[in-house]
Specification:
Elements lengths: L1 H23 L5 H21 L1 E5 L4 E5 L2 H21 L5 H34 L6
Antiparallel strand pairs: 1-2
Helix pairs in contact: 1-4, 2-4, 3-4
Length: 133
């Protein structure tokens, strides 16, 4: 699970860097990037909060399990992610569409990171294994 969180952070940093570059070069205005980032964050948090994270007694680690509902939501999420250019392309075009997509993706990744981290902390707290900072 720690590896998954690290991957989320690395992806978020890359996407955020692209988002900031797009903002600074004027490809997208602040409010549209904020809207994309915020809605992506909400979607990522909702998708992440549905995943089941549990304690594995034998290995003494936190694991994530996918159930049927989680798999269905993942398929819907991936379908949306792959078709977002088609969906958003009706209203936004060109460089702004690319910038909007990167802002949205950065928000989704951050939302997934936050929800996954909260779930891991809750599982560790239940097991009495959460270390105080």
């Amino acid at each position: 699970m720690k590896r998954r969180l690290i991957i989320f952070i690395i992806m978020f940093m890359i996407m955020s860097g692209i988002m900031i570059y797009d903002l600074l070069t004027g490809k997208i205005n602040f409010w549209l990037a904020f809207l994309a980032f915020g809605s992506g964050n909400l979607l990522g948090y909702l998708v992440g909060s549905i995943s089941k994270i549990k304690w594995h007694e034998e290995d003494s680690v936190v694991i994530a399990k996918m159930d049927r509902i989680g798999i269905i939501i993942l398929v819907i999420y991936l379908s949306f992610s792959l078709s977002r250019r088609w969906i958003f392309g009706h209203w936004i075009h060109g460089d702004m569409l690319s910038a909007f997509s990167f802002s949205f993706a950065a928000g989704v990744i951050l939302g997934r990171f936050i929800s996954t981290r909260i779930k891991i902390r809750n599982v560790l707290k239940e097991q009495g294994r959460l270390m105080k900072p």
